[in-house]
Specification:
With 278 residues, the protein is α/β, with parallel strands linked by helices. It has two domains: 151 residues, HAD superfamily/HAD-like (Rossmann fold), CATH 3.40.50.1000; 101 residues, 2-Layer Sandwich (Hypothetical Protein, Haloacid Dehalogenase-like Hydrolase, Chain: A, domain 2). Helix content is 31%, strand content 22%. A six-stranded mixed β-sheet has the order 8-7-6-9-11-10. Strands 2-1-12-13-14 form a five-stranded parallel β-sheet. The protein is globular, with a radius of gyration of 18 Å.
Length: 278
């Protein structure tokens, strides 16, 4: 599965990991082996950061459990947040008018359910439909019948759509055709397609973070499993795709790890950061 199974020539100084499907399983758990590998990397002096589509309140418990020592990339990279100083370092937003357009567009597709993110709040208009997956979209979503009016003419962080898995390709095509060059459209989960601001992608945010920390690209490693991880896997000096990633994402990676069920993220960290002979 690997094109380059050897450790990188330069030591890794910044490790960026995705959450869901990479370090966090479908039950919302981080395995002991993955947690141990992440913490061992920090003991070695490596900056460890999390990159996720989740908003800050939803990402924070995972980041704090790991104990990351570098700023957090959340909202697909739309926000870079310093947990140690409780300070926003970078934030890009989606224009209010476009957010309202998107909510209207999907009226033609009743099976696509919108979720709007704004100012650490999450708005939905169908509570029953989202029952049971609150941990995926973020905690305590707010029910609002009119998702445009509730925004009070202010910009949003992103608009997510829950779609049937078999309908994700059509949702991607439809939404990309609608937004054109005004925003980014990506798949972040088998059932999620997201519209995010320009510049709100994990690759751009990871590049910003590496520059902020003074780490050259060659010493950056990124691990992910979905289309929304593709930009950071492609940008990192050492990009790693999980075994459960789609084939186009694997094609971008320098190395393909085992799946999340096999603690693939830990295997990659042990091999390339901790230099274990596995």
């Amino acid at each position: 599965m690997s094109r380059d199974p050897q450790p990188p020539v330069q030591p890794i100084r910044l490790l960026e990991v995705d959450l869901d499907g990479t370090t966090v399983d479908h039950e919302g758990r981080i395995s002991p082996r993955v947690l141990e590998a992440l913490r061992a990397a920090m003991v070695r002096g490596v900056w460890v950061s999390v990159a996720t589509g989740r908003n800050l309140p939803s990402a924070r418990p995972f980041a704090e459990r790991i104990g990351i020592n570098a700023p957090l990339l959340c909202l697909q990279g739309g926000m870079v947040y310093d947990l140690q100083r409780e300070r926003v370092l970078r934030h890009v937003t989606l224009p209010h008018a476009l957010s309202c357009e998107l909510v209207e567009v999907v009226r033609a597709y009743p099976e696509w359910k919108p979720v709007v993110y704004q100012d650490n709040r999450i708005y939905i208009n169908d509570a029953a439909f989202f029952a049971g997956i609150q941990t995926l979209i973020g905690f305590q979503p707010i029910l609002a019948e009119d998702l445009c009016a509730v925004l009070q003419a202010r910009d949003t962080d992103k608009v997510l759509f829950r779609v049937p898995p078999e309908d994700a390709p059509r949702a991607l095509e439809t939404l990309r055709a609608h937004v054109g060059e005004r925003a980014l459209v990506m798949q972040s989960h088998a059932i999620f397609v997201e519209v995010t601001p320009l510049g709100a992608d994990k690759g751009t945010a990871l590049q910003w973070l590496a520059n902020y920390l003074g780490v050259p690209r060659a010493q950056v490693m990124a691990i992910g499993d979905q289309d929304n991880d593709a930009t950071m896997i492609a940008w990192a000096g050492l990009g790693v795709a999980m075994g459960n990633a789609p084939e186009p994402v694997k094609a971008l990676a320098a190395w393909v790890a085992p799946s999340i069920d096999e603690d693939g993220a830990a295997v990659a960290i042990e091999r390339f950061v901790l230099n274990h002979d596995l």
